[in-house]
C-alpha cells in the first residue's frame, strides 16, 4: 500500500516506522572505495516507500575572517570559506510539509560566526572544522553525521624594511583545505589539502620512450618546462576526538611541512635540481615522500595537470626562421592540458 505521497502530512513517527536503514559502513559495497577519495558516509541510505533514499543539506561558501590580537600589538588573521553538510533524520520534510527536524541552513551560517567568535585563541583551519563538526553532530539529536569542508586563503605577513609587519598581510596563491567528518558514534576523519599550488621548473624535465602509434606526433624530449598546479589531499590516521593532538599549532605546522616535502621533491636540490622523466614519476615521488616522512598520514592523493609550455617555431616559405626555438621562447597554455592523478595509501589505511 502506498502510504506516502498522499499529499497530506503524516506524523513523524509514521515516517520513522517506514524508514529502514539499508546500508551501514560495514556493508560489502561500502568497502569498494578508492583510496583518498573521501567518501560520503554510507549510513544515510533509507528506504522510503520501496525506494532507496539518501539526502543531506547544508550551507556552502560561508565566508568568515577571524583576527586575533596580542597585547604587544601583533595581529593574526585567517580567512575561511566554510561548507557544512548535515546527514540528519529529516526525511519528513522531503515527503511532506513537516520541516520540524530541519536545521535551517541559515542557522548553520550563523553558527559559523558564533563559533569563530568562541575561538579566543588562534585556531587552525582543521581545529575549527573539528569544532564545528563536533557542535552540529552533538548539539542536534537528528544529526547523525556532519561534514565540514573549509578552504583557507593564504594571507601572509609582509615584511617592511626587513621587519615582519604587525598587521600587514599579502595574499599568496595556494589554499589550505580541510575536510572533517564526525559521526554520532564518535568516529572522526580528518583530511587536509592544498589547492592551486602552482609550480614550474625550466629544465630537468623530459618525456621519452612513451607508447607510439599512428596517432602519435609528440617528439621525445629531455629538455622541457614542467609546470603544474598541484592539488593534494591527505588523510590523517586519527579516528576519534581523543586522538587529535592538543597543541594549537599542530595542524598548521604539519600542513607547512607537507607542503615543503611536496615542493622540495618537485624541484630537487637548489643548484642541480632533479630530473623528471614524466609528471607521473614526479607525482609518485612526491606522494611517497609524504607517506614516508609523516607516519600520521595514512593516504595521500595528488592531482598534477601537465600545463604545457609549447616551443615556439615560426617560419614562412620565404623566411625559414622568423623564430627558431632554442629552449627560450614558449607558448604557455592550459587548454588542453594533461591530467595526471594518483593516490597512495598504507595497507593499514582505513580508506
Ligand atoms: O609527463 C608527461 N606525462 C604524460 O602522460 C604525457 N603525455 C604527453 O603528451 N606529455 C606527457 N608528459
From TrEMBL:
CDD domains: Uricase. GO terms for cellular component: peroxisome. The keyword Cell division does not apply. Gene3D superfamilies: Urate Oxidase (3.10.270.10). PROSITE patterns: URICASE. It catalyses: urate + O2 + H2O = 5-hydroxyisourate + H2O2. Catalyzes the oxidation of uric acid to 5-hydroxyisourate, which is further processed to form (S)-allantoin. 5-hydroxyisourate binds at residues 105-106, 207, 224, 279-280, 306. Keywords: Oxidoreductase, Peroxisome, Purine metabolism. Its EC number is 1.7.3.3. It is found in: Peroxisome. O2 binds at residues 105, 306. Belongs to the uricase family. GO terms for biological process: purine nucleobase catabolic process; urate catabolic process. This is Uricase. Pfam families: Uricase. GO terms for molecular function: urate oxidase activity. Its main location: other. The lineage of its organism: Eukaryota, Viridiplantae, Streptophyta, Embryophyta, Tracheophyta. Pathway: Purine metabolism; urate degradation; (S)-allantoin from urate: step 1/3. Urate binds at residues 105-106, 207, 224, 279-280, 306.
Amino acid at each position: 500500500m502506498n502510504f506516502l505521497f498522499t499529499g497530506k502530512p503524516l506524523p513523524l513517527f509514521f515516517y520513522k516506522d517506514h524508514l529502514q536503514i539499508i546500508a551501514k559502513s560495514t556493508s560489502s559495497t561500502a568497502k569498494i572505495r578508492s583510496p583518498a577519495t573521501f567518501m560520503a558516509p554510507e549510513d544515510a541510505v533509507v528506504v522510503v516507500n520501496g525506494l532507496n533514499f539518501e539526502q543531506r543539506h547544508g550551507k556552502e561558501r560561508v565566508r568568515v575572517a577571524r583576527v586575533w590580537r596580542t597585547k604587544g600589538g601583533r595581529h593574526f588573521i585567517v580567512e575561511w570559506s566554510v561548507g557544512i553538510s548535515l546527514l540528519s533524520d529529516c526525511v519528513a520534510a522531503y515527503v511532506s510539509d513537516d520541516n520540524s527536524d530541519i536545521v535551517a541552513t541559515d542557522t548553520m551560517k550563523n553558527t559559523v560566526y558564533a563559533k569563530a567568535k568562541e575561538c579566543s585563541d588562534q585556531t587552525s583551519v582543521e581545529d575549527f572544522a573539528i569544532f564545528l563538526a563536533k557542535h552540529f553532530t552533538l548539539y542536534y539529536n537528528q544529526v547523525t553525521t556532519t561534514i565540514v569542508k573549509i578552504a583557507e586563503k593564504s594571507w601572509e605577513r609582509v615584511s617592511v624594511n626587513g621587519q615582519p609587519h604587525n598587521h600587514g598581510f599579502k595574499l599568496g596563491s595556494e589554499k589550505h583545505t580541510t575536510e572533517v567528518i564526525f559521526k554520532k558514534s564518535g568516529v572522526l576523519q580528518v583530511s587536509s589539502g592544498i589547492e592551486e599550488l602552482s609550480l614550474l621548473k625550466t629544465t630537468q624535465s623530459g618525456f621519452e620512450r612513451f607508447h607510439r602509434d599512428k596517432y602519435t606526433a609528440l617528439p621525445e624530449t629531455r629538455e622541457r618546462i614542467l609546470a603544474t598546479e598541484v592539488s593534494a589531499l591527505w588523510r590523517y590516521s586519527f579516528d576519534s576526538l581523543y586522538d587529535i593532538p592538543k597543541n594549537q599549532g599542530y595542524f598548521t605546522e604539519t600542513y607547512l611541512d607537507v607542503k615543503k616535502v611536496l615542493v622540495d621533491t618537485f624541484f630537487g636540490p637548489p643548484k642541480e635540481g632533479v630530473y623528471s622523466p614524466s609528471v607521473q614519476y614526479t607525482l609518485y615521488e612526491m606522494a611517497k615522500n609524504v607517506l614516508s616522512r609523516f607516519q600520521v598520514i595514512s593516504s595521500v592523493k595528488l592531482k598534477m595537470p601537465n600545463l604545457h609550455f609549447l616551443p615556439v617555431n615560426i617560419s614562412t616559405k620565404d623566411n625559414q626562421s622568423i623564430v627558431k626555438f632554442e629552449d627560450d621562447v614558449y607558448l604557455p597554455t592550459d587548454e588542453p592540458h594533461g591530467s595526471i592523478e594518483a593516490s597512495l595509501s598504507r595497507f593499514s589505511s582505513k580508506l
